[in-house]
Every structure is written in structure tokens, then in C-alpha cells.
Amino acid sequence: DQQVKQNSPSLSVQEGRISILNCDYTNSMFDYFLWYKKYPAEGPTFLISISSIKDKNEDGRFTVFLNKSAKHLSLHIVPSQPGDSAVYFCAASKSSGAGSYQLTFGKGTKLSVIP
Amino acid sequence: KAGVTQTPRYLIKTRGQQVTLSCSPISGHRSVSWYQQTPGQGLQFLFEYFSETQRNKGNFPGRFSGRQFSNSRSEMNVSTLELGDSALYLCASSESRGDGAHNEQFFGPGTRLTVL
Predict the structure, then answer these.
(1) How would you class A111 by CB atoms within 10 Å of its CB: exposed for 0-12, middle for 13-18, buried for 19 or more?
(2) B110 touches chain A (CB under 8 A)
């Protein structure tokens, strides 16, 4: 049972345009959401996060939107740059008790930004 | 601050052997989590250690175990290796401030394990 889904395995965008990566989740207990970027042969790099009490969070070119009623979040990258080409993972977190927060990941979307 | 480091980066083992992987968290981070990444299953949570105690565990068999030392460094061990254990094993550290707030997890580069 996949609790976090990224339905688009890949996405191609022209340099300078907007990239929109989508993520859906099924577990209503998730209360914190994160996006990670991963290059080959490296570990995931934290990009941006959002708490379930918010519907938007911005950090430079990256904005994450959360729609709790639809159990949907999206990552917008504006403007897209060739260096943004990587695999993007959506992750969701909920308390597992005793201060532990376990991450559940989607399977990733490979973004290619074309110069 | 230095990032999360993992050793070794690459490892080749044969079925039935055991393996130990090491992770050094970011200085000051007390929580260490381990994840397995495979093409079919994606990134899956193995377990988390905090203050030398396993605080959370994913759905993996008992062949997968770990420990954490007093300096927060962690090791994971896989015994009786199977072909399906071939994967990228990632370690992540977080502050775990204990104030109830979610803390971002920062990942190391991973150890690529190949089981022949």
C-alpha cells in the first residue's frame, strides 16, 4: 500500500519555465511534508518542507503548496534551471511516538530541464 | 559543519555473508535513521536510533539490525545476505530537539551494496 504517490515518473521542462511536481498521499495522519532532490551517486538533499497547518511555503525559486482536503501537494520551481535536473522525492512524516518522525517517500519524479 | 558520512561507499558480498555499514551524523545531531533504496520499492525506512536506543522500526526482517554509540555514530548490520538485499543504504541524521517539532533529516551519500 503506497501511502505517498508521485504519479509522474518523469517531467521535461524548458529552461526558464515553471516546473510543477506533484505528490498525493493517502494517510491523513501525515502532518509534515518535505521535498528532496537527488543526483546520481549522492544522497537526497533537503529542499523545502511544509507543515500541515500551512498551505504554502516559499524559499527562493521553490514553493510548495499543500491542499489537505485533496491530500495533494506540489512543488513549483520558477524559473527552472539546467542544474535543477535531478530526481525529486516527496516525503511525508508523522509522529511515531517518543519524538520519532518516520519519513515515507514517494518513488520520485525525474526532472529534466532542457537548455 | 561537515555533512553525514557513510562508509564504505561501495561493497560487494556473496549470499549468506553478513555486512556492517557505518554512519557518522552531522555534529550535534542525535537521531540517526537508516533507509533502503531499491528500484522497485523506492526509499523505505529501516529503523531510527536516538540516544543509543532504537526508537522506531520499519517492516524489515530481523536480519537487519543496528546500533548507535554514545557519540551518535551508528552502524547497521545485515546477516545472512540475500540477493534481494542489493540496494543503496542511506543514513540520515536530524537534531531531534525534543520539542515536538518535526526536524528535517539530512542524508549521507549512501553505501551501494551488491550481493552476488
Answers:
(1) buried
(2) yes
Q: Do B108 and A49 touch (CB under 8 A)?
A: no
Residue A91 pairs with which residues in a beta bridge?
A34, A105
Subunit contact A101:B102, Cβ cutoff 8 A:
yes
Sheet containing A4-5: give its strands across: A4-5, A19-25, A72-77, A62-67, A56-59
Grouping H, G, I as helix, E, B as strand and the rest as coil, residue B55 is: strand
Nearest to B42 among A45, A101, A107 (CB): A107
HEC assignment per residue over chain A: CCCEECCCCEEEEECCCCEEEEEEECCCCCCEEEEEEECCCCCCEEEEEEECCCCEEEECCEEEEEECCCCEEEEEECCCCHHHCEEEEEEEEEECCCCCEEEEECCCEEEEEEC
Is A87:A109 a contact under the CB 8 Å cutoff? yes
- How do residues B52-105 score in pLDDT, each as one tens digit? 999 889 999 999 999 999 999 999 999 999 999 999 999 999 987 666 666 788
Q: Which residues of A touch B (CB under 8 A)?
A: 31-32, 34, 36, 41-46, 49, 51, 89, 91, 93, 96-108
| Chain centroid to CA B103 | 17
CA A50 to CA A54: how far, in whole Å? 7
